[in-house]
Design a protein that fits this description.
Rossmann fold; 6 helices; alpha/beta; single chain; 4-stranded mixed β-sheet
């Protein structure tokens, strides 16, 4: 009588542990890749600028208040500070980098973040304690009011309003856009997370929707 031979038992515990570890690593890579992609910003010229050839006047909507971005003044202060850093470093690259990290210039409700200069970007951050303009009722907004003066002072044939809208300020943006529409002013906008700096390309461009 022949006896049946049993196949040898194969222990897969080590193999399963290895596969579990590999799966965990793959999941971490996918998550990190997703986070990096969410932070990536592509800076391109405003579409409406190319169509109309109009100069954008940037206004930030933050804390349900309006802030005019003083780009000209901030750029001048930043360029002056960079010139001082370059001269004081006397050609020492590491010294210039250290001074740049510590550098800070402010104007009105904003400060320049010099860390982004190394990436070819001009970035500004809001000063948290700064207060903006509350636009509550567009029916009573006249040229004697803050936003009314901006609206009234625009050259509609050459200028447009470009809004940077924080995720806590959709309400004030709707009021401001409605008032601009009443006065036949072209508008573009971009939605921005509350923690992100406002970044411009080397040519001063941003990616704004119409």
């Amino acid at each position: 009588m022949r006896t049946q031979q049993r196949a040898p038992n194969v222990v897969l515990n080590s193999f399963l542990d290895m596969m579990t570890c590999m799966l965990g690593v793959i999941i971490m890579i996918v998550l990190l890749t997703g986070l990096d992609a969410s932070r990536l910003q592509v800076l391109i010229p405003t579409p409406m600028e190319h169509v109309t050839g109009k100069k954008p006047i940037f206004i930030e909507c933050r804390n349900n208040e309006l802030f005019l971005l003083p780009l000209t003044q901030l750029r001048k202060l930043a360029n002056d500070e960079l010139k001082k850093i370059t001269e004081s470093a006397q050609g020492q690259g590491n010294e210039a980098l250290q001074r740049m990290v510590k550098a800070s210039v402010e104007y009105e409700a904003y400060r320049v973040d010099f860390a982004y200069v190394l990436t070819g970007q001009f970035a500004i951050e809001p000063i948290p304690t700064a207060r903006g303009y509350k636009l509550v009722d567009i029916r009573y907004e006249t040229t004697s009011n803050w936003f009314g003066r901006i609206i009234g002072g625009l050259d509609k044939s050459k200028e447009m309003l470009s809004f940077v809208v924080r995720d806590d300020s959709f309400e004030v943006f709707k009021y401001a856009r409605a008032l601009a529409g009443i006065h036949n002013i072209d508008v573009s906008y971009e939605l921005l997370d509350a923690s992100q700096p406002i970044k411009f390309g080397l040519g001063g461009t941003r990616s704004l929707a119409q």
